[in-house]
Each structure stands twice: as structure tokens, then as C-alpha cells.
Amino acid sequence: MGRTSLHGQVALVTGGAGAIGAALGRALDEVGATVVLADVHGGGAVPGFPEPVVQLDVTDRDAFARVANGVRARHGTLDILVNNAGVGVAGEVQSQTAEAWDQAIDVNLRGAVNGILAVYPQMIEQRRGWIVNVSSLAGLVPVPLLTPYSMTKHGLVGLSTSMRLEAARYDVQVCCACPGPVDTPFLDTGGAGVDTRRYLTASAGAAIAPASFAAAVVDGMQRNRAVVAPGRARAVWGLGRFTPRLAARVLAVNLEKELRQASSATTR
Questions:
Q1: Catalytic residue numbers?
Q2: pLDDT, tens digit, for every residue of 79-137?
Q3: Residues 6 or more apart from 67 whose CB is under 8 A from it?
Q4: How many Å apart are CA 94 and CA 126, to the nearest integer?
């Protein structure tokens, strides 16, 4: 199959002030797209982009609609939405607060829904468009110690793969991006003693650079892939699909190892 050109298309990338969002914006810019970055921390500058980051809290449905309408008013169209904004929550389930669960659901899942509500009707009308939902390997396999995060990322996979079949009837493409660990500050956060970087890389291999992930996403769009799982993430996904008992044992071993290390660190 031939590769779809993204040249001349207009893209809105949420979470654009972060490492992954900025990398996705640069990768789209490199193939000729016009890119608007939006983030809850708006107003700042991202190297390589002449315009400041647009202020957008993705949990605010009305604000998302205003930003999307603003992009269309300025550029005449909005062809690509990258739902990249997200938050991570680490720690055992019993350590999570109601607020942590709400934040994971509101940002990771409802934020993507708000984006779809803001752009999909117009994409149907213009008979073209791309919606890219940035999920995670944690949306393809179980990830204990990140259960709220994994729950919402599984939701994004279901949203994307189900919607893709409907949207194709209107020449709108939907893709779900599912990386393993990406080398961003998220890996250096934790919860209840969990070392996120240590834990995730033990299961899914060394973290990849944001630019490598972004290049894989754009390549997947050009190839019209339903799911993009770059590098070792694809192998781990395959392990979970074809040998689920073995995958569960590996995850259980890594879970117990991380809990022992976290307990040892807190008792020193």
C-alpha cells in the first residue's frame, strides 16, 4: 500500500509543552504539516515553533471546542488531532485517592473524548481527518502498580480501535499509539515508593527517545496503522497476546521485585 501524505495538513497536538507532545509536533512539521501545540501550561515557547503554546485544559469540554474552532478560523481547516495530554499515577490500588482516580480518568480518557467531540463532526463533513490517541503499552497489557493509568490507557485502545471502523466510512482515520517507556520526566516520578523508571524498564526494556516514538507515530499514520507499538513494545504486546500465562508470570515477578525494592528503600 502507498503512504499517505500529511503535507499541508493542519494538526492540533495536546500536551504540546511536554517532551512527547513537542516531539510529535516536530515530527509532523518535518513531513510538512502545520502544527498547533496546546497544553494546560500554555503561553510558553517550544523550540522550533514560532507560535506560543495555546492554553488548553483538555478536561474542559467547552475550552477544547473553542481551541479547535480557533485553529479552524486561523488556518481554514483542522485535519489532525493528536490526543497526547496525559497523567501517570503510580502505586498500589489501595494507596490511590479518589482524586487520583478522577484525575487519571478526566485527563487521560475524558480529555480524548472531549477532543473527539470538538473535531470529529467537522472531519466527517470535510470527508478527511486523522485522530491519533496516545495510549501506552500499559493499554495493551496489564501493568500492576499503575492500575489507574493502565485502566485509562486500555480505554483509549478500545476507543480507538472501535471508532476506527466507524470513522473509515467517512474517510477519517483513527490510530492508537502505544509506546513502552519513553524517556521523559514521567519515568522519574513515583508513588508509594515505586520507582517508575526502574519498574517499567525492567518489564519493557530501555526507554526510547521522544523523537523516536514521534517518528514511529508519523510513520504509522502514513501507513494507516490501527495501532503503533514501536520497538520492544510490539514484542511485549505479542507476548501478552499469544502467551498470556507466561506474560502474567513475568509481570508478577517484576511486581514482587519492585515491591521488595520499594519496601527496602523506605526502611533504610
A1: 149
A2: 999 999 999 988 999 999 999 999 999 999 999 999 999 999 999 999 999 999 999 99
A3: 12, 38, 54, 56, 118
A4: 47
Residue 4 lies in a domain: no
**Residue 51 belongs to what domain range?**
10-267
**Residues 217 and 173: beta-carbon distance below 8 Å:** no
Spatial contact of 4 and 56, defined as CB atoms under 8 Å apart: no
**CB atoms < 10 A from the CB of 51, how many?**
11
The cell for 201 is: 524498564
Q: Give the CATH number, domain containing residue 240.
A: 3.40.50.720
Per-residue HEC secondary structure of 54-123 comes to EECCCCCHHHHHHHHHHHHHHHCCCCEEEECCCCCCCCCHHHCCHHHHHHHHHHHHHHHHHHHHHHHHHH
Cell of 96: 490511590
Q: Hunting for cell 504539516 — which residue is that?
A: 33
88: which 3 cell numbers?
501517570
Q: What is the three-state SS of 148-202?
A: HHHHHHHHHHHHHHHHHHHHHHHCEEEEEECCCCECCHHHHCCCCCCCHHHHHHH
Secondary structure of residue 132 in the 3-state scheme: strand
In a 13 Å sphere around the CA of 240, the CA atoms on its Cβ side amount to 17
Of 133, 141, 130, the closest CA to residue 167 belongs to 130
- Phi, psi for residue 29 in degrees, rounded to 5: -60, -40
What are the angstrom distances between the C-alpha of 48 and each of 25, 39, 83, 115? 9, 16, 21, 25
Q: What is the rounded CA–CA span in Å between residue 32 and residue 45?
A: 20
Number of domains in the chain: 1
Q: What is the pLDDT of residues 5-32, one digit of tens each?
A: 999 999 999 999 999 999 999 999 999 9
Cell reading at 190: 513515583
Q: Calculate the CA 113 to chain-centre distance.
A: 13
